[in-house]
Known about the structure:
Helices cover 9% and strands 26% of the residues. The protein has helices at 2-8, 149-156, and strands spanning 68-75, 81-91, 98-108, 119-124, 132-138.
Amino acid sequence: MSLTASLLHLPPLHSLKLSSSTTPTTTTTTHFLHGSIPLSLLSKPSSSLTNPTSCPPNFLPPIRAMRSLQGRVVCATSDKTVAVEVLRLAPHPKYKRRVRKKKKFQAHDPDNQFKVGDYVQLEKSRPISKTKTFVAVPVPARNSRKKDADGESAELGIPLESQQPQA
């Protein structure tokens, strides 16, 4: 029997005792047969990039970017307040087609300068009242597509047929 044990390079039977013997072979007792340590005794891995002391507390609100929206004034009857309708395109949840979605915001107009139909930009500010947290700012006028015939010919540098001398 010792000949087969030496051929297979197996340790003798007296060294294969369980951890319940009088001489402890390991300092921690394992609850698993294959000798792994329970998860409760393991600590979380830490990387060198994160420092556990510099983690911010999770009860603080997240910091958001300042919101700036554009819309059209739909109601200007209140004093120093305008209702602005903001239009955005969002995909339909089922059909994935882009659908127009509208939302009305109350905005502060300190000089009562805006009328119904004006395009304004809404800048986020401190709460002015229960529903007003935006200030209305005028948007520069867009380039109109309507052009005069004279302006169009001067732009191209070529006179129109009606402006050429008759020969």
